[in-house]
């Protein structure tokens, strides 16, 4: 083994933070103790709400996969298996916070107020972006970003803005790297994956976040695969150590435990809002489904690995925990029925919404007319009318 491969091998990593074990029993890790007080206000009522979000998202997700298979969506990006950390982080946020997602955060979108239909319709080409981020009903949930890592730059830029605004309110218009943090009262949370951690953008975003002490929380959902590339190939150390290397408070959590995501997310967000600087959370989870509907994971993943993670399904885990707390069949039956009805409603909306005018694809590229866009618009007109001529000939 080369020297490089051995780097860090003698370091001991603390146990990932978790409150629930794989079977859903309350069994906090030693590392969880420092965060336990964040759960003071979380009881059965809150956990039922979280469970509902998870089941609704799973039903919506499954419906969208079916729609794609039936040729009704161009593509779908499943989030199955990652609902555990998403629900915890989503509920840890405060209304004034901003969220910069990748493309798999359907549950976070829902909790922030974005309609599932708005998430699905961009995969049918009915909209350019999906939803209006400036509409308060969308909970400061920014647009999905398919260019890996771009959202980390957007998030750090936004968080710098939050910092500048807070300083300006206090009469200070300077911004210098290396200063201590400033209380902002609001924070930014950015989501990305283990593969995206290799992008230069994500690393630059962390450098700026640490230098300027932005009010920001980086959330890496390590679902073990970047399409067909396993995480071990992209990082020879656990990812949370990268956060430490950039000078961010960083931890690793069990990403299928909603309580761990909530507790750590809440603490890190509060510290970020109060001038304590940025944090980094690596959530260990698993992408149960395909990368997208264009992918076939059976070509690169072992079935044993998939089955082991299916046994740790975050929905089953929270259900077991709720049953231990006394929640009965009636609740679970109602949640599933409501989730199915909600998913069907999205399906009906998708199938009955008229396609936009093809010309609309040129409308928002530039603020003012641009010759290249005009050229393309004319080409499309000619192309479309060639069909009409063909029919008449
Ligand atoms: C800049 C850029 N490079 C490559 C791609 C192609 N691509 C799309 S998703 C993906 C893997 C991303 O993996 P990860 O960050 O772990 O997130 P996950 O999809 O597993 O949630 C790649 C390489 C892209 N969209 N953008």
Summarize the biggest pleated sheet: 5 strands, parallel
Distance between the termini: 71 Å
> How many strand elements?
7
- Number of DSSP helices? 14
Please give the radius of gyration in angstroms. 22 Å
From the coordinates shown, what is the CATH architecture of the largest domain? 3-Layer(aba) Sandwich
- Order of the strands making up the biggest sheet: 1-2-3-7-6
List segments where confidence is low: pLDDT < 50 over at least 5 consecutive residues.
none
Instruction: State the helical fraction.
Output: 40-55%
Strand content: 5-15%
Shape: globular
CATH homologous superfamily caption of the largest domain: Thiamin diphosphate (ThDP)-binding fold, Pyr/PP domains
List the secondary-structure elements in sequence, H or E: HHHEHHHEHEEEHHEHEHHHH
CATH class of the largest domain: Alpha Beta
Quick synopsis:
The protein has 393 residues and is an alpha/beta fold. The chain has two domains: 14-356, Rossmann fold, CATH 3.40.50; 358-393.
Would you give an account of this structure?
- Helix content is 45%, strand content 8%.
- With 393 residues, it is α/β, with parallel strands linked by helices.
- It has a five-stranded parallel sheet, sandwiched between helices. Strands 4-5 form a two-stranded antiparallel sheet.
- The protein is globular and about 75 Å long.
- The structure holds thiamine diphosphate.
- Thiamine diphosphate (TPP) is lined by residues 104, 146-148, 192-196, 223, 225-227, 287, 291.
């Amino acid at each position: 083994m080369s020297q490089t491969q051995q780097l860090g091998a003698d370091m001991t990593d603390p146990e990932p933070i978790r409150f629930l074990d794989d079977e859903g029993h309350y069994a906090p890790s030693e590392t969880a103790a420092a965060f336990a007080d964040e759960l003071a206000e979380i009881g059965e009522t809150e956990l039922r709400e979280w469970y509902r979000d998870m089941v609704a998202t799973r039903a919506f997700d499954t419906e969208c996969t079916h729609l794609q298979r039936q040729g009704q969506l161009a593509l779908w990006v499943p989030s199955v298996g990652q609902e555990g950390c998403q629900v915890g982080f989503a509920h840890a946020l405060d209304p004034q916070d901003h969220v910069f997602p990748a493309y798999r955060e359907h549950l976070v979108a829902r909790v922030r107020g974005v309609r599932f239909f708005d998430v699905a319709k961009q995969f049918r080409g009915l909209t350019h972006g999906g939803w209006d981020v400036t509409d308060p009903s969308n909970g400061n949930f920014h647009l999905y970003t398919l260019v890996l890592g771009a959202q980390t730059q957007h998030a750090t830029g936004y968080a710098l803005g939050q910092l500048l605004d807070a300083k300006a309110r206090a009469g200070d218009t300077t911004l210098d790297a290396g200063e201590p943090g400033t209380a902002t009262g609001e924070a930014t949370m950015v989501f990305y994956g283990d593969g995206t951690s290799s992008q230069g953008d994500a690393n630059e975003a962390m450098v700026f976040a640490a230098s300027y002490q932005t009010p920001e929380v980086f959330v890496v959902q390590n679902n073990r695969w970047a399409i067909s590339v396993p995480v071990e190939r992209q990082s020879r150390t656990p990812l949370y150590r990268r956060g430490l290397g950039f000078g961010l408070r960083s931890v690793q959590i069990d990403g299928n435990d909603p309580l761990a995501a909530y507790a750590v997310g809440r603490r890190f967000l509060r510290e970020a809002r109060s001038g304590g600087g940025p944090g980094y959370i690596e959530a260990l989870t698993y992408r149960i489904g395909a990368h997208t509907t264009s992918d076939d994971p059976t070509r690169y993943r072992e079935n044993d690995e998939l089955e082991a993670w299916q046994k740790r399904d975050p929905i089953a885990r929270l259900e077991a925990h709720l049953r231990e707390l006394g929640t009965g069949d009636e609740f679970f039956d109602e949640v599933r029925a409501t989730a199915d009805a909600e998913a069907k409603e999205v399906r009906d909306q998708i199938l009955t919404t008229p396609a936009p005018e093809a010309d609309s694809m040129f409308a928002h590229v530039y603020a003012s007319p641009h010759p290249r866009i005009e050229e393309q618009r004319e080409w499309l007109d000619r192309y479309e009318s060639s069909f009409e001529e063909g029919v008449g000939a």
